[in-house]
Predict the structure.
Amino acid sequence: MIGTLSHYSGRSALALGVFYLLLATPIARDWLEASMSRHMLVQMPLLVVIGIIAARLVPGRMQDSLLIRLGGAWPCVIAALFASSYWMLPRALDAALTDPWAEAAKFLSLPFLVGFPLVLAWRRLTLIGRGFVWTNFFSMLAVLGWLYIVAPVRVCNSYLVNDQENAGWYMVIASVLLFFWWLGTLLVGGGVGPDKPDQSGSGRTFA
Amino acid sequence: MATYTYTPVPDQGAKAGVLAYLVISCVVLLLMMLFGLLMRMEQAQMISIGALWFYKIMTLHGAGMVGIVALAGAAIMWHFLRQYVDLSTGIFMANLILFLTGVVMILASVLLGDFHAAWTFLFPLPTTSMGMWSPGAAALFMGGLLVIGVGFVLLHLDIARAIISRYGGLGRGLGWPQLFGPDDGNAPPPAVVASTMVTIVNLIGLVVGASILVMMLINVYVPTFEIDALLAKGMIYFFGHVFINAVIYMAVIAVYEILPRYTQRPWKSNKVFLASWTASTIMVMFIFPHHLLMDYAYPKWFLIMGHIIGYLNTFPILIVTGYGAMMIVYRSGIRWDMCSRLLFVSLFGWAVGAMPAFIDGTITVNYVMHNTLWVPGHFHTYLLLGMVAMVFGFMYYLGKPNENAPDSALDVAAFWGFVIGTMGFTMSFLYSGKISAARRYAEHLPEWVPYDKIASYFAMLLIASVLVFIFRFLTRLGLASRDYQRASLARSMAT
Amino acid sequence: MSLAKRSVLISALVTSLGTWVFWWGTDGFTAFTAETARRVEILRSPRALPDVTLEDQNGKIFHLKDYQGKLLAVDFIFTRCTTLCRSMGMIFKQIRDLIPEESLGRDFALLSISFDPEHDAPANLKKYGEAYGADGEIWRIARVRNKAELQSLLDAFGIIVIPDQFGGFEHNTALHLVGRDGRLRLISDIDKAVPFAEQVVALL
């Protein structure tokens, strides 16, 4: 595991920071936000992934103490749930395009309120917690996709109506594929997490 | 081939949680049976409750029965599975609490809100009430189902966690290394294999079910988000069929676990057994199209696939279980008591009950039979004489005072009352189906009424017998939680 | 405080904070799209509009301010449009026909504004107007020639125009009502022509 900030993880952090800034450049933003599918299914997931990688670069001990300060796994999961679903609102999508403050909020909240806390929480979640997060995510992604497909109106003023339908279909497809991938990991026995929920919230390593 | 020898394991008593599940199952089961009787008597024109109450009761009877057999099946599965893997009692109880919450929501929706669109909540009926019930009542009903579903998702996730950490993956829980490689005799016991299968299919079914429920909840309040009716029907039947099928695969664990204790012969997880469970894991997800064979708008390949897989899935587990039970009982000198009788008759009920479905799964038959009482005839046979018999067998097993305790004449009479009552009751369903009595009709043509009357009398016999079963179990609750030898050992006739 | 207690406390805190953000971000769970938000906001506080210079179907130059003191129905179109703008023409005609004749022109006027000034020269505007029986006085078809002015007008109305793949545009289509004070006071769906007209009559 990552014990201390090694030379290697220092370089990774730098690369990650550069990538984050690159995503924030007007060129990258214009291109990624030009279509609803790219906005929701490429840019936003990339921002979450940045948070995930950032959290993984934090040394294990620091992750543990941070998690304790944040009150354990569930506050982190709930924060991620709220932050991620907020950006699924068509209104939030539009706002990100027209209001620079909203755009800034998006660039900050997706990595730091979704990706980062999820990683912190993940190590403490058993299969029940993880499965709860996953199954919720799959069914809600599919339902959201369906909403975008059948919406009788253009939900985003900034996007073409067929773009909205495409994005919906991509979400449904992604949800089905991810669901089967997750079931696959269960069949071979991965992704289970710790066997018992950690009551103290701290691993033995921390004590 | 590996050799299997029987290693005696002590009969364990039930944890308080399992008993809570079973007591609630008894109460709800009895209530739902009385509801069923009311419906049959209304059709038989013996009473007159009116169409509104008929459909309200029908909705409750459907949702209640599906829920309660799932709860009872889960109790059996959990009781035996926890002897092999480390299950969480907290999650088991959380499921019960969520279940009861959902039941209260459903009861309120139907009794106070007049919701009566059948438990299948087929789109667009719940949202198209023509003023008979409010959107709130429909939402409460579907919300109740959603809450119950969340409870079962948690339970299955816990089972998945426990199986994975004990065996290293759900694939291993199904015994794939022994199925696809050399059989080293280390395949998981049948209880684990069955639980793994149920967990996989129910997780998939419940995620699909939750999705369609949320879609319909949105549609209730924002009707402009239209749902494709065929998609909705496909998703609902996928979820509903997988879920109701899974109950018998949970309950059959009682047969796998208890019969060997009577005859001291092992139930083998051999290659054939493993293959049939793996095959059914896949197939049980593709047989729901027999509910859709009349919907010509579906693609043809989809319906033909449903026809073929429906045929195929009828058999593997049924034959493997039936044959296995024969092998275990044959010349074993088994001592027949209430438990072993009920478990044995349950396999007969399962086999007999599957046949009408097999016939109904034929496309040309389905066109004329599916919307008749033939189909209730099918699922009442296999649920009552199959699944519910397993549950009562399990209850008699838990409550048996000692291994040599004789059954009273009343119990034996109740057993035959149960078998004869169920057969008579379901046969009149099937015969009414044959003469085209329509399904889900509050009022019947005069030609159909005699069979409704016959069915009502048999149903009364059945309920009277069940009352004996339940009374016996409740009076023996104190014994059910203790560990002692219950199974009557076979007289040593084994060869 | 034990960790379990703190966990519950912080979870509750995060949940209420998250709910509040949703409440705030959707105007109390009413406006999930920018389009609804725009309408809700206008209803709550009518919005001032920039005084832009327009050119009508006869090439006549006028200002938006010229309409002050009258109720003004506004919609946004481009004349090459083959879909919604066509029905918009019919809907505007329907609204005009629902207003009492003595009020037309005196107390109420209609204005269709093109956001495609490059293509929509007065001749094209005139053709569009004639197709729906616009008289050119009570109901005028106009364009804003100055790009910056056009953008400020669209922004004030909350109209977003994006080019589609067929050389035309996609835009949020609605019926707008500007009050006597020159402020935008009502936005409604295009299939609500009759209620819209009733609102106008009530204000006359």
User: Anything to note?
Assistant: Residues 50 and 153 of chain C are 6 Å apart (CA to CA).
